[in-house]
Write a structure and sequence with these properties.
heterotrimer, A mainly alpha, B alpha/beta, C mainly alpha, B: Rossmann fold, Rossmann fold, six-stranded mixed β-sheet, 19 helices, 19 strands, C: mainly alpha, two-stranded antiparallel sheet, 64% helix, disordered N terminus, disordered C terminus
């Protein structure tokens, strides 16, 4: 089973290392960095590590062949997601979220992960936002897509309306989580002793307190608006969009059944397709 | 030697419908084989089976075998056949991947792993073979439809495949673009000896360049034979062919030149070149919408310049003109979608507009609900109007199908029904027959004439001169923003490059139906 | 490389169609060097200098298009958010030196942190926060400039072959953007036209989003057919790719272990493992990129000019490091006690190295282009016969 085991192992590791890179303010000990003056470099180091993690993911993707349909559908959805980001909506990236989540639900965790990565990549190109924060954003959105895929597997047997409701709640929660993750990139850039600032070497509890204060005062309201907007979009469009997306699911992984037909057919034994397949 | 052999090929899609049933077909190396048939007859499936897209890329149940230049499509995925067969489909916008024409052509070569020098040489040869060397650094999105299709063909051809499969390559193009593409295909076949498997609706241009043709129907696939014979009983044959069939000419002509030769050889039971009573040209009843000295500017450019056109009840008006002459702009001005920079549009009746791309309208899960949606939006209840329009356009049997699963011609009809059911007096149709098969065209013409007969009016913006000849009572020709000709169809069409085929062979008749009418009268 | 018939006005680099004097790799090097310089010398004076340099670069090399125009907007947004942070920090961090003013204070409830907002606002705190904010603005300015001057297609094409599929997806997405915008426009109009020119608000979102999405997906299917028919993913998963995948896996494990070592305060172990992890991933990428069977068509290779420019740009952060080791203490600035930031000529000279890309100007002359097309034909014929054009 190494075929299934290996990719799962890679995705797990990517998740762990990625999370460790995100959450470094909470565990990085004080003496890990050369001097306090350079602890402001920490975000850039984690940017590099996140970038490497994304690359490791890309290698894994490369290892499995991607067919033309996956590339094309990902490209189209990434384009739409990128355009949505151009629209100034409440919350930083609200427009992208609902498409990535619905795409993940419709097509599965691996597709959701790729969609998150490429949607953020494409939208960075479209909005001119390439920078050290990009690997963070890509991993965050990729995680959103992947978990949406797992959710989709679990909810596919529910009635459509209930399913859309569950997805809306999921999106609402992720609105906050994503905001919290993203803020971690720039939070440590400000140093000092204030209750909303970070210093390496603070205990975990203190760090959490400080971060919560920071988050609450700067972006909670913003993210709440974004999360709510996400949920509303999913409730409004989810049914129709999911149905549309699922109609295309069979093109991504086509199931081909080859029936062998006899070489010569006489008039008396005109065989229908159904009988042929039953024979095999 | 057979290039492509279909042996007992059967195929059904994952969601059920059987597309091909025990098909046997042989395509001879070096020939141009024309595949004709209405949508839904399995044409697309047949073509895609040649390079393995069916079944590998679509999924489904596949029986039998297709052997192309010695390789079986069952054991070879399309990507492994890229060096023997190239594929081009009808949408010029969705086939080019990269930002530069030259790079797009090299895409297939990169995939096949050629050396750098070989790639360079192939790209140059391909650019020359299609005559697009001057486009090499352009971005595909800046090209016209015809140019894009030629680049798509180049992209398929760069690997020097022995066969080329094209699924309606000209259906989304204007006449000039279609000419260029078909000429390029003809040149490829004659210079390089590429086997061509071509599906087309526009038989006026495509029929003359084929060696053999085959007409698909729900009964299966007959053996291919000479083009004229294959098209003998097909309703979508070029007008000169149908004329020849009507008058009993042998061999059936495919081009205007052949038809003139036949006409000179055979005597006709009536005189031509006489003044006949044309169709009653109803100058129309009361004016339903009029453009008065209308000028429209788009992105700083004046697209319409002081245009005066009025549409009266009972008229079917055809709007002709080159791309960019302002046809679509005029229609949209009538519909109130464009604002006038000078002059005005004066509507006395209600006006509804059906855009060029029907898929912009379709979003409901069934056809019936789609049409009923318009009534809901207008706040009215359905008093049998939905069924009436379904019937009128011949799509009643599709009422419970998903609109997006229909063919192009069927979708167009659904879109027209969805707009017309709102009960507007004037129907504006923008390029309604683009990509439509013969069956859909006939249904459309009938619906148009019925609507006009009931007191409404229809305006058709089109490149299709035959359509104008068959149903229009009046023709307006736009050129560079001005009205350059207007009047009775017979008179306006006679004078110009817009003449229908029958008119060029035996004036003053415009259509085969008119000749038929005259015959019956004699 | 044959220089015959290449008119002046087009930069020569193995593939001579680009109007842009520097390759995408050069710009990446420049951006990284500038960002590193800001991090290494966060003294506001130097940061302002770097920001000024980036502005000059945008003015000179900014491509026509949305990114060049977006540069001031992006920088403005960065300034706005930095100011917000400064206000927040100023109001919540309290000291007792150099008090500027005092505001009425209140304490947040325990659940939200239990700290005091308002009270004495001190100058050192504000200045410190201001300096850090300026660093953020500087980084954003560097990357906004990068986006404005680089050709994104070239950027994707220069990514290592290991990321080919992902890069292709982004290219496809970029190609679909104008088509999607058009689709949105068409759909909105069709919706209005359906009801005779009046807009009906009820259910409008569904009526407009679904057709745009469906149209896009249908085009995607056509594109997929085109990709498959043109041999996409022909070589499949080779041994190289598999090997690279395994190395990547091991490298990830090393990285994760290095984090654990950091927590356990085993710094040397952490550094060693971290180094293994980083090198491992880079090595895996290199292996995966060298896969035979895919040679790029006429890629833009680095010329001597490109390499010199990269070298000069990299000189800036290197010199700063040298200066910092040599004990230059003007590189950082701590405003307690309050004082003016120091300024030394040496680091400023090092920063001048970042002006290297300004030594060449982009071509904007249209006639140079048409000249080029004519003589291209001649050189092309020469190519066909003798393959004189050097290929990488």
């Amino acid at each position: 089973m190494t075929n299934r085991l290996r990719p799962s192992l890679v995705y797990l590791l990517v998740g762990l290392v990625g999370i460790a890179a995100f959450l470094y303010p909470f565990w990085l000990p004080a003496n890990a960095l050369p001097s306090t003056a350079h602890s402001a470099d920490a975000p850039l180091w984690t940017a590099m590590i996140s970038a490497l993690v994304v690359m490791a993911l890309a290698l894994e993707v490369r290892r499995g062949t991607m067919n033309g349909a996956t590339v094309a559908v990902l490209g189209v959805l990434a384009a739409s997601a990128g355009l949505l980001r151009l629209i100034e909506l409440p919350g930083n990236n609200a427009g992208i979220f609902f498409l990535v989540i619905l795409g993940g639900v419709a097509f599965g965790p691996r597709f959701g992960l790729l969609l998150g990565l490429t949607a953020m990549g494409a939208s960075a190109f479209i909005t001119g936002g390439i920078g050290p924060w990009l690997p963070f954003q890509m991993l965050g959105l990729g995680a959103m897509g992947a978990t949406a895929g797992l959710l989709g597997r679990a909810t596919s047997h529910l009635t459509p309306r209930v399913e859309v409701g569950v997805i809306a709640v999921f999106a609402w929660v992720w609105g906050f989580v994503y905001g919290a993750i993203l803020n971690l990139w720039s939070w440590p850039l400000f140093q000092g002793n204030g209750p909303t600032l970070w210093r390496p070497g603070l205990s975990v509890n203190t760090t959490i307190e400080h971060y919560w204060s920071y988050y609450f005062t700067t972006s909670l309201a913003w993210d709440a608006a974004g999360a709510l907007f996400n949920a509303i979009l999913i409730v409004a469009l989810g049914l129709a969009l999911l149905a549309t997306l699922r109609r295309f699911a069979h093109r991504l992984e086509p199931v081909v059944e080859i029936i062998s037909a006899p070489k010569a057919i006489s008039l008396e034994t005109i065989v229908s397709i159904d009988q042929l397949s039953r024979r095999d | 030697m057979n290039a492509i052999s279909y042996r007992q090929v059967s195929f059904s899609y994952p969601d059920g419908p059987t597309a091909l049933n025990e098909v046997n077909l042989e395509v001879i190396a070096g020939e141009v084989l024309l595949v004709v048939g209405s949508s839904g007859s399995g044409k697309s499936t047949l073509l895609r089976a040649a390079n393995g897209l069916v079944p590998h890329a679509t999924g489904g149940r596949f029986g039998g075998d297709v052997v192309i230049f010695g390789r079986s499509t069952i054991s070879h995925h399309p990507r492994e056949l890229a060096d023997v067969v190239g594929f081009v489909s009808q949408d010029p916008e969705a086939q080019l991947v990269v930002d530069e024409v030259e790079h797009d052509i090299a895409f297939v070569l990169e995939n096949l792993g050629l050396s750098a020098t070989a790639m360079r040489r192939r790209v140059e040869e391909t650019l020359d073979a299609l005559g697009i060397a001057h486009l090499r650094y352009r971005a595909p999105m800046t090209l016209s439809g015809g140019e894009r299709q030629r680049v798509a063909i180049a992209g398929a051809l760069a690997a020097a495949p022995s066969a080329l499969v094209l699924d309606e390559p000209t259906s989304q193009l204007d006449p000039q673009g279609a000419e260029d593409v078909l000429a390029a295909i003809a040149r490829l076949n004659s210079d390089l000896g590429t086997t061509v498997l071509l599906a087309e609706h526009r038989l006026e241009r495509a029929a003359p360049l084929a060696d053999r043709a085959v007409v698909l129907s729900s009964d299966g696939i007959p053996t291919p034979c000479a083009v004229a014979d294959a098209l003998a009983t097909y309703p979508g044959a070029p007008p000169v062919t149908r004329l020849g069939r009507l008058l009993g000419w042998d061999p059936l002509p495919l081009t205007v030149r052949d038809a003139r030769a036949r006409a000179a050889e055979n005597s006709l039971p009536f005189a031509t070149n006489i003044e006949t009573n044309s169709r009653e040209s109803s100058r129309g009843g009361q004016t339903l919408v009029a453009a008065e000295s209308l000028s429209v500017e788009l992105s700083g450019r004046e697209v319409l310049h002081r245009v005066d056109v009025s549409i009266g009840a009972g008229e079917v008006v055809a709007l002709l003109g080159r791309n960019g002459a302002g046809k679509t702009t005029l229609l949209r001005a009538f519909a109130g979608l464009n604002s006038a920079s000078h002059g005005r549009v004066n509507p006395t009746g209600t006006v509804a507009y059906v855009p060029q791309d029907p898929s912009t309208l379709l979003f409901s899960p069934t056809v019936r609900r789609e049409i009923a949606e318009t009534l809901k939006l207008l706040g009215r209840r359905d008093a049998g109007e939905v069924d009436a329009w379904l019937d009128r356009l011949g799509i009643s049997h599709l009422a419970e199908r998903h609109p997006r699963s229909l063919s192009g011609g069927e979708r167009q009809r659904v879109a027209i029904a969805a707009v017309a059911v709102g009960g507007a007096d004037v129907l504006l149709l923008d390029e309604p027959t683009r990509g439509m098969d013969a069956l859909s065209r006939t249904a459309l013409e009938r619906a148009v004439q019925e609507h006009a007969a009931e007191g409404g009016a229809v305006v058709l913006a089109t490149h299709d001169v035959e359509l104008a000849a068959r149903c229009a009572s009046r023709v307006v020709v736009l050129g560079d923003g001005d009205v350059i000709a207007e009047g009775e169809a017979r008179i306006v069409l006679a004078g110009s490059l817009f003449a229908p085929q029958v008119l060029r062979v035996m004036p003053p008749f415009l259509t085969v139906e008119q000749v038929n009418h005259e015959l019956e009268g004699v | 490389m044959s220089k015959a018939n290449i008119p002046a006005g087009r930069y020569q680099s193995g593939r001579y169609q680009s109007d842009r004097p520097w390759s995408a790799i050069t710009w990446v090097a420049w951006a990284l060097a500038a960002a590193a310089t800001i991090q290494l010398a966060p003294n506001p004076v130097y940061v302002v200098l770097v920001i000024a340099i980036t502005w000059l670069v945008v003015v000179e090399h900014g491509l026509d298009g949305p990114y060049a125009k977006a540069f001031p907007i992006l920088v403005g947004a960065a300034v706005f958010f930095a100011v917000l942070r400064i206000v927040l920090i100023g109001l919540t961090t309290h000291g007792n030196q150099d008090v500027l003013f005092t505001t009425p204070s209140f304490t947040m409830p325990e659940m939200l942190g239990g700290f005091t907002v308002g009270g004495a606002t001190t100058a050192p705190v504000l200045l410190q926060a201001g300096a850090e904010g300026l660093v953020i603005v500087g980084i954003i300015a560097v990357f906004a400039a990068f986006n404005a001057v680089v050709s994104h297609y070239e950027l994707i094409q220069t990514t290592p072959r290991a990321f080919y599929e992902l890069g292709l997806i982004v290219i496809v997405a970029l190609c679909f953007v104008p088509s999607t915008i058009e689709a949105i426009r068409d759909v909105r109009e069709a919706d209005r036209a359906r009801t005779g020119g009046q807009t009906v608000r009820r259910g409008r979102l569904v009526r407009q989003v679904i057709p745009v999405l469906e149209r896009g997906l249908e085009k995607a299917i056509t594109l997929a057919e085109s990709l498959d028919s043109r041999g996409f993913a022909h070589s499949g998963a080779t041994a190289r790719a598999r090997g690279a995948g395994w190395i990547g896996l091991v490298a990830l494990i090393a990285l994760g272990s290095s984090f654990t070592a950091l927590v356990a305060r085993e710094n040397t172990v952490a550094i060693v493992l971290g180094g293994i992890g980083v090198i491992g991933i880079l090595f895996a990428i290199a292996i995966a990129s060298k896969e035979t069977g895919r040679i790029r068509y006429r890629p833009r290779s680095l010329t001597i000019a490109d390499r010199s420019c990269i070298a000069i740009c990299l000189l800036a952060p290197i010199l700063i490091i040298v200066l910092s080791i040599a004990g230059d203490n003007t590189l950082t600035w701590t405003p307690s006690p309050v004082r003016w930031p120091a300024f030394d000529i040496l680091p400023a000279l090092a920063l001048i190295a970042l002006l290297a890309p300004l030594t060449r100007r982009p071509i904007t002359n249209a006639s140079a282009i048409s000249e080029f097309n004519l003589s291209d034909e001649d050189s092309v014929l020469a190519v066909g016969h003798s393959d004189k054009v050097a290929l990488p």
